[in-house]
Amino acid sequence: MSPLLSQEVPLSWYLLLSAALFSLGVVGFLIKRNLITVFMSIELMLNGVNLSFVTFAHQWHAVKGQIFVFFVMMVAAAEAAVGLAIIIAVFRARATLAVDRIDRMKL
Amino acid sequence: MNGHLYLWLIPLLPFAGFLINGILGCGLPKWLITTIALLAPLAAFLVVLNAAATIYVYILPPCVPCGPPDWGSIHLPYTETCPLPWISAGLLHIDFSFVLDQLSLVMLLVVTGVGFLIHVYSVGYMGGDKGYARYFSYLNLFLFFMTVLVLAGNALVMFIGWEGVGLASYLLIGFWFQKKSAADAGKKAFIVNRIGDLGFLIGMFLLVANFGTLTFSEIGARLNANPAWQGGVLTIIALCLMLGAAGKSAQLPLYIWLPDAMEGPTPVSALIHAATMVTAGVYMVARTHVLFDHSAFALGVVATVGAATAIFAATIALVQNDIKRVLAYSTISQLGYMFLGCGVAAYSAAIFHLMTHAFFKALLFLAAGSVIHAIGGEQDLRKMGGLRKKLPVTFAVTTIGVLAIAGIWPFAGFFSKDAILYAAFLQGTNGKILWFVGLLTALLTAFYMFRLWYMTFMGESRGENVHPHESPWSMRGPLVILALLSVCGGWIGMERFGRFLAPSVGVLPTEAGSTRLEIILSIVAVLVAIEGWLIADKFYRRNPAKPAQYAAALTGTYNLLANKYFVDEFYGAVVVKPLLAVSKYVLEWVVDFGILGGAAWLLGGIATFTGAILQRWQSGNLRSYAAWLAAGAAAVLLFLLVPWATVLANLPAIHLGMAGH
């Protein structure tokens, strides 16, 4: 077991940091109006999750968790590309990025 | 040759004919339809003949020609079972098995033989009909189910055939379905038969409950091992089976469908509603005769129902004016004879009468069809007359048929009817009454058959069609063959026939009789038949005004008979109308509209209402969706992570602790 993890910094700290990052992401997603900020909040949530993955992978000496993190990063990159494209398209169409104004997704 | 009789081919060949003509019939040329339709029953008949010849040569004890044959695996009863298990539920095992014994052999010969002849006849009779292929596919379908019924080794296989012939009968009665009366008659036959089938079904359930098997041979063996087991549940089973038989064989009180069944084409009436299907009830009683033998009461019921039906139907037949209806009532009456025979435990006599009746009644129906065909579809006896010269062949064969059904020596009907009456006479005091009823019926039978004969062929023509023409050879051929059978069919003699059938249905109970008594009774029966002829002669030849005088003098009786005792009206008022009323007011309005419809409306209303509320969730606001998502995720986490068991267990403690402060 790594001295860094087990002796100097307890496991729970990593997890608390991860939960804090994720919660920040959620709150940002819910309260921010600007679409780009919302988008960044999503990245924040993803990275919060990534952190807990890495933590556990290290804790249990299982490389699967780290591999999974690479997958998540990859998907996040792809998502960023698609998402930004959508944001640009929305901006061109509606001339705004305020999420409350983009509410045509209902009956 | 490895000791097989290929029984499974017998039903399968007509079934193949049914499939080919039924599926491809519309597109095939007529000669091909005819060939297929005729080959199927012919081939089945040949298979039966092969089986019969095998049995005759190798199995019947006095006929073993040279040493033990290599047919060692064939004994009567000979069974062929489908190698795959059919129904297996707990202790109950039912195989799909066919059994050939003396009884089913006789029945098969009649069914496929007469069936083939009627197929040939139909080629001429139905030649111009639009539904030619449909007609023959139904006819082949009937033969398929009928042979299944006859070959069945257990009650369930028999039930398949039983229902199947009912279906074929329904399809063929309603063959000209554009005509409302024909469609109605088909429905009537089907529905009335359902009542009887219910009896058959309950009988089967009781058999399973009490014997644990439906195989006829096992039931027979079990009962023969316990001769003391009498009455009780056996009576109930036998009566249930008798109800089924009464439905299929048109006995009181379920006979009403048969006269209406005459709406079907005439060859159908000959094959299904005279020669074969309607005798299935008699066959079933003979097949399960061990049950009846163990219940004197059930036998008494069978005999009484048979005798009552015989005379009841015969009186109706006296005044009917439709040639086919006269024959229909006469069929009911003759079926009554067969049940009378079964009821006095003279099963082989009943089967004997079944066989001869198949010959002469098929002959009479086909001859009637020939007459109807010749004068352009007219069925009213009052519009016939004088056809003797115009239709010589038809006239000759009808004469033979009439003599046979009247029971004149030496025609076929004499031997079989006589055997039944003789067996009845030997059954004590009640037997004498049954015998007398049978004799009276014979008088009436002779009268109405000769009435039909005189009104059709004698005197002057009363119809508009002055150019009747004899039927084609495809129709005359079967007539001639059936006429020969109607003459010679009885010559085998009751004694030999009874000895042949004895392993299947038991010996004829005639120990109390003597040859002298039999001869005396025969002479009485023939005299009675001739008396009936003479009365008919007086009424319809020498003094044609007489029937009208009698009808005028006995208006009440005449109307009662002409209206068939108002039984249809009675059933209409007592059964059909209340049933329709219940269907309309209770089933349609209360159950359908009220309960079922109400439930549907209620469910629909709930869905609409809930939807209207839930609709508000779909705000279109991305952040509200995300908020619900996050709240849901939080709820799930709360549910999974909080140790609810511990929390709940500690709740009272917390509560008490709070109260303490």
What does this 3D model show about the protein?
The complex is a heterodimer of chains A (107) and B (661). With 107 residues, chain A is mainly alpha-helical. In chain A, 79% of the residues lie in helices and 0% in strands. Chain A has helices at residues 3-8, 11-31, 35-60, 63-94. In chain B, strands 1-4 form a two-stranded antiparallel ribbon. In chain B, strands 2-3 form a two-stranded antiparallel sheet. Residues 62-70 of chain B have low confidence and may be disordered. The chains are: A mainly alpha (107), B mainly alpha (661). The A-B interface holds A 26, 29-31, 38, 99-100, 102-107 and B 615, 618-623, 626-627, 630.
List keywords for this structure.
heterodimer, A: 107 residues, mainly alpha, 79% helix, elongated, B: 661 residues, two-stranded antiparallel ribbon, globular
Return residue spans of chain A where pLDDT drops below 50 for at least 5 consecutive residues. Answer: none
- Please indicate the percent range of residues of chain B in DSSP E strands (runs of 2 or more): under 5%
Q: Major sheet of chain A: size, sense and barrel closure? A: none
Gyration radius of chain A, to the nearest Å? 18 Å
| Strand arrangement in the largest pleated sheet of chain B | 1-4
Number of strands of chain B: 4
Shape of chain A: elongated
Kindly report how far apart the N and C termini of chain B lie: 104 Å
- Determine the N-to-C terminus distance of chain A: 56 Å
Note poorly predicted spans of chain B.
62-70
Give the biggest beta sheet of chain B. Answer: 2 strands, antiparallel
Strand content of chain A: under 5%
Summarize the structure.
The complex is a heterodimer of chains A (107) and B (661). Chain A is mainly alpha-helical and 107 residues long. Chain A contains 4 helices and no strands.
